[in-house]
Amino acid sequence: MRNPRARNRSLESGRPASCLPDPVGAGRIGSVHARNLPGMVPTGSLLIYDADPAVAGKAAAEVDGSVRPTAEAVLADTDALVVATSATDRLPLLDTAMARGIPVFCEKPLAAGLPEARHIAATARRLSARVLVGFQRRFDPEYLMLHRLVASGAAGQVLMIRGTAFDRTLPSEGYSSTAGDPFTDCLIHDIDATR
């Protein structure tokens, strides 16, 4: 169900009345989402916020979006939210969006630690909030085919799984202090895919 206030906010702001997700966090993965969003949903101008105004400005320029000075400014005028901030900054954004009934796509990991992730899950259940975590690999055709083969027994008994992943560019110097270690930030995709 759409956020009941979304149409009114869209009309009041002059934006099209479509469920347009706006990104908060326009760095490494947030800028990828900002570039992809206009091709997936009917859009007006994306509302973009990042803790670094230069990063937000660059992402906005690439997609004809507009920069907002704070995450709250995006939350006040969005139909749906893409949370791609540092994992350490996600909890307050998710809490606010869920409390306001704003649907959220959240990059993985959901939070910086297990207590925060459990809090978000409990809040989402309690409020019947719509929160989707960015585990896109489970929808890749090859993963789906492999899942069917394993589930049917056609692939035999799985004894070991080996995964390899890499990014095309190195993360920034402070990345691991806000994103977590390689297990929570990258291997989590492989853990999700093997479930």
From TrEMBL:
Domain Gfo/Idh/MocA-like oxidoreductase N-terminal: 24-135
InterPro entries: Gfo/Idh/MocA-like_OxRdtase_N, NAD(P)-bd_dom_sf
Stretches for region Disordered: 1-24
UniProt keyword terms in alphabetical order: Oxidoreductase
Gene Ontology molecular functions: oxidoreductase activity
Highest taxon above the source species: Bacteria
UniProt keyword annotation of RNA-binding present: no
PANTHER family: BINDING ROSSMANN FOLD OXIDOREDUCTASE, PUTATIVE (AFU_ORTHOLOGUE AFUA_2G10240)-RELATED (PTHR42840:SF3), NAD(P)-BINDING ROSSMANN-FOLD SUPERFAMILY PROTEIN-RELATED (PTHR42840)
Protein family: Belongs to the Gfo/Idh/MocA family.
Protein name: Gfo/Idh/MocA family oxidoreductase
The species this protein was found in: Streptomyces doudnae
